[in-house]
Amino acid sequence: MLNSNPSRVMFGLSLTLGIIIATSSNSWFTSWLGLELNLLSFIPIISSSFNSYSSEAALKYFLIQALGSATILISASSMWLFTTNPGFLILSALLLKMGAAPVHFWFPPIMQGVSWMHCIILMTLQKIAPLILVSYTIISPISSYMVQISSCLSALVGAIGGLNQTFLRKVLAYSSINHMGWMLASILLSSDVFFTYILIYSVVSSSVVFLLNSNQIFHFKQMSSISSTKTKAISFLSLFSLGGLPPFLGFIPKLLVINLLAQSNLILWLLLLLTGSLITLFYYTRIILTTLTLSTPKLKPSLNLKPTLPPYTLAFINFTPLLFPLMSFYQF
Predict the structure, then answer these.
(1) 179-205 pLDDT, tens digit each
(2) Transmembrane stretches, by residue range (predicted)?
(3) What's the pTM?
């Protein structure tokens, strides 16, 4: 991911430091500093002089994140000048920075413009700080309603938006937006469930991305060019795990959120999240059926890469509920 380049290692460490500063500070100004450090560390990582698409994606990402950071800084400064609490502005800026609906428009194009390894950072690490800061803004009924509305919209937009996509990076981008709805629900109800969700989601999404990157798969049609039956099977089951299909690992955090919403009698919210999750499973199934039914007359040698050990090792984590079923339900 960092290609053992000293500069990229340094930017990776400062990116992680920015997340730690933003989430552990006791003032919005220090949190803003952490978010800026995280942003300025991520821009050099994704930008490349050899790829114009990554440079364009880096510029778009910088502009969007700068808008969110400016909104946070202005809103936090206004707390000292006015008696009203501008927490809804900070919450809106954080939703923009994490790519949650209805301010999700920038996320799929940027995912399409960066490499697979940078997609992992964008889907996992870059969401941790804004999500944790969102939990600090839920201090009034208005902010709670905003989180609920954004959660429902993220679940539906992420599901419907991925239906007409043929590029796998955009499919995973909309899938990430759909998972944002579940994460916002978990962070509103239980911080322990949220940390469980973000950890399992990071592992499952990384396992899918590693498999796709090891075979250099970017489009639906390229999935049928995988010659190894074992690679196809593991890729398909990992996609089902990412979609939350039982009994794979990706179902465990969704089961915890379902349990919380059912106990809180938030049935309508739960139905919207489940509807979005079922639609995401539909387009994952479409990818698999397309791969199984279509065949390419010419297999490109560059697409028949032999996956290395780490992608397979990480992908087998998705099957832990099958191997250790009793450990999967320790939360209950």
Answers:
(1) 999 999 999 999 999 999 999 999 999
(2) 61-82, 88-107, 119-139, 145-164, 194-212, 233-252, 267-289, 309-330
(3) 0.89
